[in-house]
User: Fold these one by one.
Assistant:
Number 1:
Amino acid sequence: MGYMETSNHGSLYWFGLALLDKDFKIYLKKKCYYNRYPAMEYLARKKVFSDITNRMRRTFPKQFNFAPISFLVPEHCEELETYMSAHPNFFWIGKPSCGRGGEGIMLLQKYNDIPKNLLTNQEKDLLVQRYVKNPLLIEGKKFDLRLYVLVKGYDPIEAYIANEGLARLCTEKYRQPTKENMKNMFMHLTNFSLNKNSENFIAPTENFLEDDIGSKRLMTSLWKGLEEQGYDVAKVKEKITDTVRKTIITLEPYLLYNYHSKVDTEHQEAKNFHILGIDILLDKKLNAWLMEINANPSLCMFIEKDPIPGEPEPDKILSDLDRFVKTKVIGEAIKIVSGQGNDDYDGTYEKILPVEDGSFDCYYIWNRATELFELMISCGKQTD
């Protein structure tokens, strides 16, 4: 990508994981760019993010219903049990809050399906989310989309969505969940980390641009296939963009607070950015459901199956598809953030926030609270 790694003289700091206390000494160097927002990893935890999206849903019930109904365990056990009893035909997905790659995920139908040790364990919390049972299918298989979203700056936070991403397919034909198949994770979970170990997994080939038939595909290949089937792809993209905008707006007050408290109360010369992985599931009505956000989306360009005990280590295979997508995502993000390379910017990203016509301004809770606070101060001064 034309960048050189250096130990102490660079203008871009790339942190591989969440920021630690010692990292903020580096963070205060105003002339550098940083690929992390303070507390983003915490906010992206399934349980935490579900909690704050539920708050927005309560405030804007019609506009912020883009995530499946969810409950936190053990905090909301009583409400969950009541809801599950009232809807015995619903299926649910239980996700460990800090889990990755499908680890620990389970399908549930009854409250008693939840392991008892999780109902009271504060350290091993669980997000229980309603299962979207009518997903849009590709070749009879369930899939999701891994979108890459660049966020940068403060006041306002800017957001850009990449026009290329990944479609990740299950490796077994989809059937609506039943007691008999609810443990078949290759049918119900789209996680690449899980499906790469299936005997039915098809690795992307070097000819993915012309013949994209693998279990992981280009998002643009998906759009082409949907157009051929008569779907209104422009409308689908519009719904996805709406979901992503509201997702970032949901995070905004918490990002502002953490930057205020840890870095700079005035947001002056903020040069941080973050590449998020946002997972979207489309249903048959082409609704764009937010499944989760990832503060550390995999940027790995290799496919490596998990080792089987007692057998040789599996080969690590370079994925040309992953290299193609992720190189563009990272390289073009740095050009946008730094303001360099405008002449050769290839349009990988589309700016989606702030919305110029002001149609989303009413959702900015931080701004509304600030205005209210300033109004209260001015009223107090008039009274004095």
Number 2:
Amino acid sequence: MLPRPYRLTNSNYILLTIRKGKTRSCPYFRLKYRLISRLPGLKPGSSSDQNIFSNHTQPPTVEPTRFAFVCSKKQLKRAVDRNRVQRRLRAQITPLLPQLKPGYQVVFLIQAAALDATTQELQTAVHSQLKELISEA
């Protein structure tokens, strides 16, 4: 199970990430992700980014990268199968948490092929799709 700070549970944020996020695809899932602003109304990389502390006494806290897993009944009919695939993907994400850059919202849109994939295939797919979010520290 993912630790609580890394779970994306708000349905509005999940929908916003699906609609406005960047997409990466593989046969087992589609990955939608987006970088969230550090302060409300402030876009990352904007010119006011340099003066971010001018009106605030404390520096803003950067949220950890949060994950949601979505699997529709059209893809996998049985709840047992949907839960199994989500659990297997969460298990692949957990060891990567310390390496991930903070401040992203990530949604996995799970495909039916993920049910028949081996653990090694899922691990390879997760690593290749998340390579943009892994910090090189």
Number 3:
Amino acid sequence: MESLEPIEDGGPEVSGESGDGPIELSRTQLEGLRRRDPDALAAFFDAYFERVYGYVRRLTGEEHLAEDLTQDVFLQLYRSFDSYDPERELRPWVFAVATNKVRDHWRSRAHREAQRAESVERDGAGRDVVAADGAPGSGLDRQELAEHLRAAIDTLPEGLRMTVLLRVYEALSFQAIGEILECNEATARKRYSRGIEKLRGVVGTDLVGGAGGAGGTGVGTPGSEARG
């Protein structure tokens, strides 16, 4: 059985990544979204803005860009609320819109040019993360360990990174992740396992857990609603 859960690290950089678990809206609030009821919209914003911003920022690595893309996400969601079905789970839809906005940005010409410029500046330099043989648990406090783990997540390829973020920070089921990333549940599980294996190769098992994602000090079990 899966045993990975939202990271508890003494406070991630973005409050939306706190790992406290998603705040769900009531049925009345969900129905109010279709009417664009001000109270329902306010509740939705409070519940999701920081979480979506944290997800987008983690994928893009840029605060201002993440702010712009997050605003675009919420504008699209606002425009689509009149067709929203309250019977439909809200979180996967929200994060699917966010994921597509990031992908659209990555496909844009401006992003490709920025990436080329950044590549020249880096001149092939790798990211500054601690390797597994660097014994990240020695002499570092929990916040420093969490920073190493977040840096390691940032090095994952796009598909693996999205899967790990949605599973660990948002506690989404593999079925929901598959819907968001446009793949089947089995593929989502495989991407997650590959992502966790790569993280263990960078930061070791102290932060990431045992084989197959079976426990660990940095990452534990998502809420029962996320079990896939």
